[in-house]
Write a structure and sequence with these properties.
The structure holds two protein chains of two kinds.
Chain A (H helix, E strand, L loop, with lengths): L4 H44 L13 H32 L2 H5 L6 H29 L5 H26 L6 H17 L14 H5 L2 H14 L7 H27 L2
Chain B lengths: L1 E3 L2 E4 L11 E5 L6 H8 L21 H5 L2 E4 L11 H11 L4 H14 L15 H12 L6 E5 L7 H16 L3 E6 L2 H7 L2 E6 L2 E6 L1 H8 L3 E6 L5 H9 L9 E4 L4 E5 L2 H10 L6 E6 L2 H9 L6
Classes of the chains: A mainly alpha, B alpha/beta.
Chain lengths: 260, 302
């Protein structure tokens, strides 16, 4: 039986990974360790020593509260990265996409194969994160495994949306702009480091349309063992909606850009 | 027919290529060669018209068709992260070739393009000619019936070009159909059994290289160079010999005068009789370059 074409693209990524895994893996391990140490433990000590609230006894430590947020945000960033430079390189800088479509691979297979690869890469980074976080005592390992699921889902959705956008762009400056004005603010203000209730009232509605906030809510609920702010299905629905749009638009844009 | 908005890249070309033939699209940059190749290669939809490649419709049967084609694009587009052999491996897997088949074919192809000793090197340090040969190997990974080559030797030094031509000639001898674009006349003359000359999306002539030369220009060309300002008076005096059978036609270029003639020596006699006293004087056989100049009034490479 013939191998589905998108899986052939996935295999190509895996082959490339043999040469590039070191950098990615080191990053995936070092980053959470640094963040958990500096923010979770360092800053967390100050937070936990702060004025006690009404339900202080029931509240988790800052480290335990922060770690799932960081997990979701890190996998969002990993997803965004997968949709940026590799797509820009394949489409413009190196042009491998333009030669790949001379084979039976269609633009949509490229898009889907890239996405499948992103699933694997994000899952690996997520598992590394949970292992480290468990070592820090930030997330119990078992719950962490569960909490990776929504975080990784949101990460892959980000890959889909980002690659759909980047395939139409021809300047690398767009990528720097996206990182500065979209990814970094999302990373900081989606309830990752502090609850969104701390934000000015006028800004809070904006946060509710950001998929990462929904991802953070789900990840945190699973890690801490509680319920998210909105019903589970709503959070999941927003992420899934962005994912569906990303995949539909992405496959079309890949075809439009490559089959001229 | 191929349109990009209001711009018509390929206005209407009507060709048939037989199996085993080496067929060329010849024309300057912007003539529509690459657009034509991409439509044939089933990576660009046709705007209008009828196109069948290996009996298949590129629109409806793109996957099946591309599985039987080899493509050498204008740019190398090799994967910089992979080694020489891995570039072939990954591309071969796109065709779903079984791994054992692929392994032995990679050995054969690296041998064929003389890159066996570089198989485990990354592609970046390879020379331009080596990269080009690797791209040719990549295009052959699926043992294609038809190979499309878009300007296969543009940007290579003469030695690398000859090495590549020799490989392509070997392919042709194995019975592979070659379809190539070029703006080099010598390349077309070397490789093509038959060719079309394209200009601004149209075919302006077609035939074998020899036929085109016989049909459109005389057998030999006398190239004359003059000191500044002497070319115009020389043309005037040569034109007065208008019933002279030694001279067919004159073509005035900015830096030289071309005299088309059935007999180069006789034309030299005519020039000497008129005492034109050119700076340099050179007879050569007419080439496709002359055909192109004749048909379009322009030179191929500016």
């Amino acid at each position: 039986m013939a191998t589905p074409i998108a899986l052939r693209v996935l295999e190509g990524h895996a082959r490339t990974y043999r040469h590039t895994w070191r950098g990615t893996t080191v990053g995936a391990l070092v980053r959470p360790a640094l963040f958990l140490t500096a923010i979770g433990v360092g800053l967390g000590t100050l937070v936990d020593d702060g004025p006690a609230t009404a339900d202080a006894l029931a509240a988790p430590t800052y480290l335990a509260w922060f770690a799932p947020g960081l997990l979701a945000a890190s996998l969002m960033q990993a997803g965004s990265a997968d949709g940026m430079f590799p797509v820009m390189a394949g489409m413009r800088w190196v042009g491998t996409y333009r030669s790949t479509i001379n084979s039976p691979v269609r633009p949509r297979d490229l898009f889907l194969g890239n996405l499948l690869w992103s699933v694997i890469r994000i899952a690996v980074i997520g598992l590394a994160f949970v292992t480290i976080a468990a070592a820090f005592g930030a997330i119990p390992f078992g719950r962490g495994l569960l909490a990776v699921l929504p975080a990784a889902f949101n990460g892959v959705v980000t890959t889909a949306a980002m690659s759909a956008f980047v395939v139409t762009r021809d300047s690398p400056q767009v990528l720097a702009g996206m990182n500065r004005f979209l990814i970094l603010p999302m990373f900081l203000f989606s309830g990752t480091f502090f609850p969104v209730e701390q934000l000015p009232d006028a800004i809070q509605p904006v946060v509710y349309v950001i998929p990462l906030w929904h991802g953070v809510e789900l990840t945190r609920a699973l890690a801490l063992g509680g319920d998210p702010t909105l019903p589970w299905a709503w959070h999941l629905g927003v992420i899934a909606a962005v994912g569906v749009v990303g995949v539909v638009v992405g496959t079309r844009l890949f075809a439009r850009m490559l089959r001229r | 027919m191929k349109r990009f908005g209001a711009f018509t890249a390929v206005a209407g070309i009507d060709v048939e290529v037989a199996p085993g033939e080496a067929f060329g699209f010849l024309g300057p940059n912007g003539a529509g060669k690459t657009s034509a190749m991409r439509m044939i290669g089933a990576t660009s939809p046709i705007s209008e018209g009828y196109l069948r490649v290996l009996g298949l419709d590129p629109e409806a049967d793109g996957v099946e068709l591309r599985a039987r084609l080899g493509v050498v694009p204008q740019e190398d587009t090799l994967d910089q992260d992979l080694t020489v052999a891995e570039n072939l491996y990954v591309f071969g897997r796109y065709f779903d070739l079984p791994r054992p088949v692929l392994r032995s074919r990679i050995d054969e192809l690296l041998d064929f393009v003389q890159l066996s000793d570089r198989r485990n090197d990354k592609v970046d340090p390879l020379s331009g000619g080596m990269k080009r040969r690797l791209v040719i190997a990549r295009s052959l990974i699926n043992d294609p019936e038809l190979v499309l080559l878009d300007e296969p030797t543009t940007g290579l030094d003469p030695q690398a070009r000859h090495a590549l031509w020799e490989r392509l000639y070997q392919l042709k001898r194995r019975g592979v159909t070659l379809l190539l674009t070029t703006h080099y006349m010598d390349e077309a003359e070397q490789l093509c059994d038959r060719l079309v000359v394209m200009d601004q999306g149209h075919i302006v002539a077609q035939g074998s290289p020899r036929e085109l030369i016989d049909r459109h220009v005389s057998r030999e060309v006398l190239e004359l160079r003059f000191i500044d300002g002497q070319q115009a008076p020389a043309i005037e005096r040569l034109e007065q010999l208008d019933d002279d059978r030694r001279i067919d036609r004159l073509e005035s270029l900015p830096d030289r005068l071309l005299v088309y003639t059935p007999d180069g020596d006789a034309a030299i006699d005519a020039v000497n009789e008129l005492a034109l006293d050119p700076l340099t004087l050179l007879t050569r056989r007419a080439s496709l370059e002359d055909v192109f100049l004749r048909l379009t009034g322009r030179q191929l490479i500016d």
